[in-house]
Backbone:
């Protein structure tokens, strides 16, 4: 299958109009030793029917969460996606367009991003938000760079209960020398004020708190917030957007920078991507915020219009002075998030959060009846860890019973619950884990 | 292009005006014209000691961004906070609106700066390139 | 401009619901962590929500609407089969932490895509992890740093970048902690070899280069450039933004590049989505393979698996394995085109660019008017000199005629630049229409310059970007 519309006769006509005889003449500037002798070692092209069969056969080699109830979370969640969203995302004016640099012809995209920024501010309780970053982990890396630049300090305190992939990404970005990661030990799964205090000094740029943390547990943020701000450092929070339907917003808790994984807002699991990292801050950090930002403006006739703004922050203008190199973000995923938050509305989001939580509580109570203990005793949102010695074995048994199990830890199994799960599915999960 | 005679100029298009032991710092007419509409000025930090040619502030327009370098060494005595809400003042009158005031600690540094005549010639050469 | 979604809400009109199943359990979240603030999300019925976004889509312009000659962005047709494939539940409904034996199809696809990209680029290994072009650059330059660090060669603190480079190149170098050394372009628009030679020394970590470059010109001295950089102990980085016109003709690996990143959303037909998601696969020669981000996909005794055991890996640049839903579209595309289709795409991209350049030169100044690859730069010089009509004016006037403008004011080394990349999926008829419109605008600029200077008229009028940046309003507020 090819997508080039000019048949050979037209190609020849075009060549002739330029005084050329063959396509080869278009490549006279490529030195001959560099030219490939013969064709690439690739298979022959396939027709559409063959491609379809091939892709379907690959897809069928996988076990998917539409067929198997899924209790895996750990940063990616199987929440329900209203049908309208995907149908709207297939409008090709959205998905086949480029970044809206030419504002007058891109008002629809710009307005959608402006609405997205507003929704993220509402959800997080923050004052400003950008148009999205790649995912939560890279958003956290950008947040730490911003914190280091803003405070002119280097240390980033990273609790050891943060998502391990966020930590790995942060450690990778630290090769720049802009910041250094200091791992903060935690106690019983949560941040302890004592450990925090003993790690504070005048080179601490920021503390990161994940809420709920990697193990699903809720942190008491208030004490840490007080300590970190007394130290003139910033508070970065990594949050789950669905949980904000019921949990206090990071803005209310005093965060300076908020990032999070936006996948749960209307984006399929898709084996890890594309997702989106949302990024929000206090007003005073607006001009240092990475990524694209849409602003409201007026057109020549005085009508409200939208435009990419504050571009002097960005790489294409700032070049070697830029502190972030991001250009393409996850615009279509942010559009999905905008549609999702509109489709479920305020009551819907709250109910999704509550049902996910209640199903988790139900499962935990049922597991407790069989003697399975929580590894961390604190309150959790939609995910928790039970103590088991053989998580892999349990997962294998669950798979044999048509269930995608939890996230295995060395001495535990972490189970996640979304509103899609049912009592019956949980009863079966508990029974299989219990050995029945 | 306007280039007042009583100021000192740098190759990076800053000017300073010396009054006793302090110096007003701003950007030139040539700078504001080439930057276009200025949308934001990141002012220097107050009370810090700066070295000659150290980057101390940033001026942003819609299409460009430019660092402001200290033309002399000294302490930042004052910053022009008016620019925070009205960066366009630098377009409207770049010589009436300074960015900061720096203490003049070493008179000899002035020798390294350009006169109005030299600066005009310098800009004319840049335009040719 | 229509209303914002917040201005359309009707309280009580949203009927989204969850299963009615009674759970009979309490909420077990401490009182002081419970939200007290209003969520502030809009309330709309499904029909009004659908109409809102449909209305927004009418105010956007995609490749499906017409020619999109945005230089450096390779706005080619996005085949529909790609979208179909990404939506198969066997792909879209996979959790990234599922056991390897339950995702063999996904792993096989990644493994095969790695291999195909290696073949197209002449590299030895690929990672699909980076989420976009700039992210691929970041991973690539980090690998260069890791390479020098492993050799204890810590004095290489500078990265060379041509003055014609895209802004991400110097920005990436800075973010990874390098000082940028700019290399001049010569009169032909190519890397100035003397300047390169003069600036190459033992403090230089490498050179970041696009070939064809941002003027659309093939760097004919690429082998000499590679020699200079390698002899000086540096590495050569390939920005794959412009790979499209050389696929199947020649390969960055054979030119001497050590690291490459690709924009799968440019060359390999995955859609741009209004600014993402993209996919910035990064490939390396053997001597850099140990620094690739983890995990890499491996094949062993009939089974595909993730290999995390790369002790010198730069680590991870992103959660999980990359934008799977994007790169599977690139896989679908390469499978569809096959070895001959790939070459034909490159040839016709070059044909279209040269055709447009050749026939545009009558009315527009073309500073480097010679054989180009996928794109070329024209300018508004004639119009500026005669009537002070700028590139921006011409770009905005194109909108009135129903066209998306080319890239403007880039590369920075050309005044009043407009960069056209007509891509291989445009027909001669489309190009002829575009030429006719551009010629009409050139005439308008002569006869009635004010008409062009005040464009556009049909869409939103020209926007006051200055006030937007001085007094930013970046969210909706009630009242």
Residues:
């Amino acid at each position: 299958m090819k997508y080039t519309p000019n048949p050979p006769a037209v190609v020849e006509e075009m060549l002739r109009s330029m005084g050329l005889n063959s396509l080869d003449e278009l490549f006279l500037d490529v030195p001959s030793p560099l030219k490939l002798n013969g064709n690439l070692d690739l298979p022959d092209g396939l027709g559409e029917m063959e491609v379809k069969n091939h892709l379907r056969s690959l897809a069928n080699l996988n076990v998917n969460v539409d067929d198997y109830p899924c209790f895996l979370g750990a940063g990616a969640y199987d929440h329900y996606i209203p049908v309208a969203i995907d149908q709207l995302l297939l409008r090709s004016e959205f998905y086949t367009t480029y970044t809206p640099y030419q504002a007058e012809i891109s008002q629809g995209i710009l307005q959608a991003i402006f609405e997205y920024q507003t929704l993220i501010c509402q959800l997080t309780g923050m004052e400003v938000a950008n148009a999205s970053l790649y995912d939560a982990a890279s958003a956290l890396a950008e947040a730490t760079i911003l914190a280091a630049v803003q405070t002119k300090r280097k240390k980033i305190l990273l609790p050891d209960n943060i998502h391990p992939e966020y930590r790995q990404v942060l450690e990778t970005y630290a090769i720049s020398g802009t910041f250094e990661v200091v791992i903060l030990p935690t106690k019983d799964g949560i941040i302890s004020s004592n450990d925090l205090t003993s790690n504070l000094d005048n080179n601490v740029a920021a503390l990161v708190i994940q809420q709920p943390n990697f193990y699903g547990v809720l942190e008491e943020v208030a004490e840490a917030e007080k300590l970190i701000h007394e130290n003139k450092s910033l508070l970065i929070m990594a949050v789950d957007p669905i949980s904000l339907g019921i949990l206090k917003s990071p803005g209310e808790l005093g965060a300076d920078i908020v990032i999070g994984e936006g996948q749960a807002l209307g984006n399929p699991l898709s084996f890890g991507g594309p997702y989106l990292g949302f990024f929000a801050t206090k007003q005073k950090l607006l001009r240092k915020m990475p990524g694209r930002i849409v602003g409201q403006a007026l057109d020549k006739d005085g009508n409200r219009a939208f435009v990419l703004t504050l571009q002097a922050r960005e790489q294409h203008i700032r070049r070697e002075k830029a502190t972030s190199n991001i250009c393409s973000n996850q615009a279509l995923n942010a559009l999905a998030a905008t549609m999702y938050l509109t489709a479920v509305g305020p009551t819907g989001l709250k109910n999704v959060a509550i049902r996910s939580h209640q199903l988790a509580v139900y499962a935990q109570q049922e597991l407790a009846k069989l003697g399975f203990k929580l590894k961390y005793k604190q309150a959790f949102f939609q995910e928790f860890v039970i103590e088991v010695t053989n998580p892999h074995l349990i997962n294998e048994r669950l798979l044999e019973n048509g269930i995608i199990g939890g996230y295995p830890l060395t001495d535990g199994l972490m189970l996640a619950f979304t509103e899609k799960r049912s009592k019956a599915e949980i009863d079966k999960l508990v029974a299989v884990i219990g050995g029945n | 292009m306007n280039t007042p005679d009583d100021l000192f100029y740098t190759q990076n298009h800053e000017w300073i005006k010396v009054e006793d032991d302090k110096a007003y710092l701003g950007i030139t007419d040539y700078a504001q014209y080439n930057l276009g509409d200025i949308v934001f000025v990141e002012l220097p930090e107050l009370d810090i000691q700066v070295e000659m040619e150290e980057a101390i502030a940033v001026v942003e327009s819609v299409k460009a961004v430019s660092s402001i370098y200290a033309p002399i060494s000294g302490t930042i005595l004052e910053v022009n906070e008016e620019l925070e809400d009205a960066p366009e003042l630098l377009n409207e009158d770049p010589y009436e609106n300074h960015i900061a005031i720096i203490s003049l600690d070493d008179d000899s540094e002035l020798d390294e700066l350009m006169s109005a005549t030299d600066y005009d010639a310098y800009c004319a050469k840049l335009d040719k390139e | 401009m229509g209303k914002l979604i917040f201005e359309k809400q009707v309280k009580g009109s949203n009927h989204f619901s969850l299963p009615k199943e009674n759970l009979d359990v309490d909420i077990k979240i401490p009182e002081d962590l419970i939200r007290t603030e209003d969520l502030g999300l809009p309330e709309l019925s499904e029909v009004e929500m659908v109409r809102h976004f449909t209305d927004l889509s009418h105010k956007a312009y995609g490749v499906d609407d017409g020619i999109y000659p945005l230089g450096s962005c390779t706005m080619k047709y996005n085949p529909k089969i790609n979208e179909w494939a990404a939506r198969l539940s066997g792909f879209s409904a996979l959790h990234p932490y599922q056991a390897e034996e339950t995702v063999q199809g996904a792993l096989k696809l990644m493994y095969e895509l790695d291999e195909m990209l290696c073949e197209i680029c002449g590299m030895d290994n690929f990672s699909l992890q980076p989420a976009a072009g700039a992210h691929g650059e970041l991973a690539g330059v980090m690998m260069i740093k890791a390479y020098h660090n492993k050799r204890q060669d810590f004095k290489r603190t500078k990265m060379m970048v041509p003055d014609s480079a895209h802004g991400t190149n110097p920005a990436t170098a800075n973010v990874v902690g390098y000082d940028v050394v700019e290399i001049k372009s010569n009169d032909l628009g190519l890397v100035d070899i003397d300047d390169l030679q003069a600036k190459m020394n033992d403090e230089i970590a490498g050179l970041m280069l696009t070939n064809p470059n941002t003027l659309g010109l093939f760097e004919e001295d690429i082998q000499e450039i590679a020699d200079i950089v390698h002899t000086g102990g540096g590495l050569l980085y390939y920005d794959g933004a412009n790979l499209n016109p050389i696929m199947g003709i020649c390969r960055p690996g054979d030119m001497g590049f050590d690291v490459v990143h690709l924009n799968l959303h440019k060359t390999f037909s995955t859609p741009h989505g209004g600014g993402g998601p993209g996919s910035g696969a990064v490939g390396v020669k053997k001597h850099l393979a140990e620094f690739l981000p983890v995990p890499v996909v491996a094949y062993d005794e009939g089974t595909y698996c993730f290999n995390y055991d790369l002790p010198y890996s730069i680590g991870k640049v992103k959660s999980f394995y990359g934008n799977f839903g994007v790169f599977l579209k690139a896989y679908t595309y390469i499978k569809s085109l096959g070895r001959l289709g790939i070459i034909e795409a490159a040839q016709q991209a070059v044909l279209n660019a040269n055709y447009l350049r050749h026939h545009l030169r009558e009315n527009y100044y073309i500073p480097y008017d010679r054989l180009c690859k996928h794109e070329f730069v024209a300018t508004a010089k004639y119009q500026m000199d005669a009537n002070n009509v700028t590139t921006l004016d011409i770009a905005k006037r194109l909108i009135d005629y129903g066209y998306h403008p080319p890239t403007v004011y880039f590369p920075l080394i050309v005044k009043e630049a407009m960069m056209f990349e007509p891509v291989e999926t445009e027909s001669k008829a489309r190009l002829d229409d575009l030429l006719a419109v551009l010629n009409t605008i050139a005439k308008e600029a002569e006869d009635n310059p004010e008409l062009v200077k005040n464009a556009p008229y049909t869409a939103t009028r020209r926007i006051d970007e200055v006030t937007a940046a001085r007094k930013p309003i970046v969210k909706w507020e009630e009242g």
About this structure: Chain B touches chain C at residues 37, 39-40, 60, 62-63, 87-88 (CB under 8 Å). The domain at 8-128 of chain B is CATH 2.40.50.100 (OB fold (Dihydrolipoamide Acetyltransferase, E2P)). Chain B is about 20% helix and 35% strand.
